[in-house]
Amino acid sequence: MSSRGHVSGGACVLGDGHFAVFGGDVDFGNSTTSSCEALTFDGELAQWDRLPPMQEPRSCFACAAIGGDVIVTGGRWWGPGSESVEVYEEALRRGRRLPCDLPWPGGLRFMGSAVMR
Predict the structure, then answer these.
(1) pTM of the model
(2) Are 13 and 19 in contact, with CB atoms under 8 Å apart?
(3) Residue 113: which residues within 8 A CB-CB, separation 6 or more?
(4) Using CA of residue 64, residue 70, residue 73, residue 75, what is the dihedral sign?
(5) What is the DSSP-derived secondary structure letter of residue 90?
(6) In the chain, % of residues over pLDDT 70
(7) How many domains, in total, are found in the chain?
(8) Which residue from 29, 23, 7, 42 is spatially nearest to 88, judged by alpha carbons?
(9) Residues spanned by the domain of 74
(10) Over 90: is that where the pLDDT of 96 sits?
């Protein structure tokens, strides 16, 4: 992870119990860029482990862990919003873009998410 702070990323608990942080903006201000980083925290080892990057840089998006996958959609602090949807497959340790986009232009921004049972 960058040594600089991140803002407007997403987070969830993975199926294996690890806490994961995805994306976010680095250098909030005039030189803002979106991160493609995805990391997990291993509480037993007290260290961050890198996951494969997301398919698209994102900030201000929605993400939720469901059945061993993390669904990530929308986002973008500035400019047009993202309409793409991607999934991180925990078992395969890979991400891929889904073949469908959100059904409305402009995507989602500043969204929270939760899985309810």
Answers:
(1) 0.80
(2) yes
(3) 10, 12, 62, 63, 64
(4) positive
(5) T
(6) 79
(7) 1
(8) 23
(9) 6-97
(10) yes
